[in-house]
Amino acid sequence: MKTISTLRYKNIKVTLTVNWKYKVLSLRVFSLHVKPRCSGKSFRSILNNCKFGVILGVFEKTIIYFDRPGEENTETVLALAKKRAEELGIRDIVVASTRGETGVKASKVFKGFNLIVVTHHTGFREPGKQELTEENRRLIEANGGRIFTGTHVFMNVERAIRNKFNTAYPAEIMAQTLRLFCEGMKVAVEITAMVADAGLIPVDRDVISIAGTGKGADTAIVIRPANSTRIFDMVIREIIAKPRDRA
After folding, report:
1. Calpha distance 69→40 (Å, rounded)
2. Strand, coil or helix: 196
3. SS3 21
4. pTM for this one?
5. Would you list the DSSP string of 84-126?
6. How many domains does the chain have?
7. What is the pLDDT of residues 174-202, one digit of tens each?
8. Domain check: are 189 and 100 in the same one?
9. Given 44, 66, 88, which residue is the final one in a domain?
10. CATH number of the domain that 200 lies in?
11. pLDDT per residue over 75-113, tens digit each?
């Protein structure tokens, strides 16, 4: 891991490093808010010496940025998501998977977790056809994962109206806005609302949602869920990993 750049501003320190082995950039943010009697001390000194109650809020967060989106990032994303889940005590994991390959990989990584694999709705590409293969369904369920297939929060009826009348409605605008981050961000938010509506995850504690661009996984977030009727109550708490570019 090599440090490329370090920026300090008041109580915030940002360090950009590169890991040539995994070909990823890492952005580490240190934020420190302390009482006056700790001002002037180094970040490490305060962590080591200040008593409880003096440090009002300290966090260190690493975000992994992939140079390119796509399935080649899948194993790294799953490993990073599991690591963060263990650090935060999160037991609920939501993963998008079309044909089931990513779902199978996730079911091996997240054994013992409440893993929900979310597929495309039936008929997404061809009328009446479900893209998840029966073999992958069997493997996911054998590893303890659960599979959810349902209506996509950001599409379906509104997508049909868009295709028919060449116009856009609010849910479509929300989806396009989330794609400003990356395709996986839009999907990660969407599938979280979908499984919350199905009652498969809690809405009163954080979960991790994993999605990607086309195939595989390249995005993972920590998110506080909400049902789709209260979607604006959702909170994207952390970004674990995402691609720097869009396909």
Report:
1. 42
2. helix
3. coil
4. 0.77
5. HHHHHT--EEEEE-SSSHHHHHHHHHTTTSEEEEEPPPTTSSS
6. 2
7. 999 999 999 999 999 999 999 999 999 99
8. yes
9. 66
10. 3.40.1380.20
11. 999 999 999 999 999 999 999 999 999 999 999 999 999
Please tell me whether residues 206 and 110 are part of one structural domain: yes
- What is the strand order of the sheet 2-9 is part of? 2-9, 12-19, 24-34, 55-66, 235-243, 215-224, 207-213, 92-96, 114-118, 146-148
Q: Are residues 56 and 81 in the same domain?
A: no
Cα separation of 222 and 213, whole Å? 18
Strand, helix or coil for residue 128? coil
Domain range spanning residue 38?
2-66
Longest dimension (CA), the chain: 67
167: left (phi > 0), else alpha (psi -120 to 50), else beta?
beta
* Domain identity same for 61 and 75: no
Residues 119 and 154 grouped into a single domain: yes
